[in-house]
Design goal:
Length: 367
């Protein structure tokens, strides 16, 4: 096990008291795995890896048990993965009830029944969750341009159809948008729930703790805030920092390319994957990217220059290498980083509800 470096700067007695208080309404949550933590957390300010808590959590005034839970996850105080609880209530008006009806529909959509692996719809749904959420900027928000983030605008304002950066997401966006409309669910939540569902539908994928209650977009998001496969590492780090996502979270998040295939990076080799096992949520991607210069990759694979650049950046090398054979560490970090991504630009986190128990169960084995 790598050395654990958990740097707690000035501890706020107030916040620590809140984080450790026993709330009878909080579900039983297992302790966060004490894996390899190179992340600096300041409990006094809620700043993790140099980044404040998102949206209306930033002032550390937690008014609901759910918002406290989210803060606990983001500050590594509890795990970012759900256990084995399944939704079990007859209350048709429970905020999670309709999501239990969506789950079998998404399983049908995302799973290859022959191989039991996840399929092209699942890859697209994970990417769609990112592209819907990733369109918000702290710098723009400071200038009162607050649109964007996880708000459903990918569907609601036709961004999947009209923006080049979203090429390939047209079909999944239409399916998810219409499903949300049919069940009268928030389109913004649908993209994030579907991304979480697709992730756990991939064998070995984590059952990420998943929250709903996002308002829908009332206007399009700002353009040009998503990364390109030709971006160097510093450009990507800055771009994500401006969304409220730190560089170590970025390293965990790009691991989603574990299940990815490209069509537009090298158009002469369509459908080539970014690792050797694109139907499985494993860490092959990290090793395959590192080895893409020294070992000839299979004809089915293409490494993105942007991923290569991150893998070689001096301040990320240790994290990248650390994930090569550490599935448990990666999926926990991915789940936490994805929670942050799924909340980008959301300003009513205090009112959100946890519906992790509406997701399928994690699969640690497959044929
Ligand atoms: C950090 C910078 C990132 C860059 C530069 C990037 C770039 C790309 C590119 C160019 C593609 C291929 C699109 C195509 O040719 O069809 C792709 C696919 C994909 N990306 Fe990313 N990405 C990034 C981060 C992320 C993140 C944070 C996630 C999710 C958490 C993600 C999930 C995916 C998935 C699942 C696919 C496969 C889509 C499919 O096969 O249909 N990416 N990405």
């Amino acid at each position: 096990m790598r050395s654990t470096l958990l740097s707690l700067t000035i501890l706020s007695l107030n916040l620590l008291a809140v984080l450790s208080q026993e709330d009878p309404e909080l579900p039983e949550i297992p302790d966060a795995p004490d894996g390899d933590i190179d992340i600096i957390i300041d409990f006094n300010t809620g700043i993790v890896d140099g980044i404040p808590l998102p949206g209306d959590l930033a002032d550390l005034n937690f008014t609901t048990s759910t918002s406290l839970t989210i803060a606990q996850i983001l500050m590594l105080n509890t795990t970012a993965q759900g256990g084995t609880d399944l939704f079990n209530s007859n209350d048709l008006f429970h905020p999670c009830y309709k999501w239990t009806l969506i789950t079998p529909i998404l399983t049908e959509l995302f799973k290859n029944n022959q191989t039991q692996e996840c399929n092209d719809n699942a890859r697209a749904a994970v990417r769609a969750g990112f592209h819907d959420a990733g369109t918000w900027s702290r710098k723009l928000a400071a200038r009162n341009i607050t649109q964007g983030g996880a708000d459903g605008s990918l569907y609601l304002f036709d961004e999947a159809k009209t923006r080049a950066e979203n090429r390939g997401l047209e079909t999944i966006t239409e399916i998810l948008g219409q499903l949300a409309r049919q069940y009268q669910l928030s389109v913004a939540d649908m993209f994030q729930f579907a991304a979480a569902h697709a992730t756990v539908t991939c064998p070995l994928g984590p059952r990420m703790r998943t929250f709903v209650g996002r308002p829908e977009a009332t206007s399009a998001s700002p353009d040009g805030l998503l990364p390109s496969s030709n971006d160097d590492a510093n450009t990507q780090i800055e771009l994500f920092r401006d969304k409220g996502i730190g560089q170590l979270d970025l390293v965990a998040l790009v691991g989603a390319h574990s299940v990815s295939k490209q069509r537009h990076v090298d158009e002469s080799r369509p459908n080539t994957s970014q690792d050797s096992t694109p139907g499985v949520w494993d860490t092959e991607f990290y090793g395959n990217t590192l080895n893409s210069d020294s070992e000839p990759l299979s004809s089915n694979m293409t490494t993105f220059p942007s991923d290569k650049a991150l893998s070689q950046h001096p301040s990320l090398v240790k994290e990248w290498n650390g994930y090569v054979a550490r599935q448990n560490d990666w999926v926990e970090h991915f789940s936490r980083a994805y929670l942050r991504l799924s909340l980008v630009g959301v300003q009513n986190i205090q009112k959100m509800v946890e519906c992790t128990n509406a997701l399928p169960l994690h699969r640690s084995t497959f044929p």
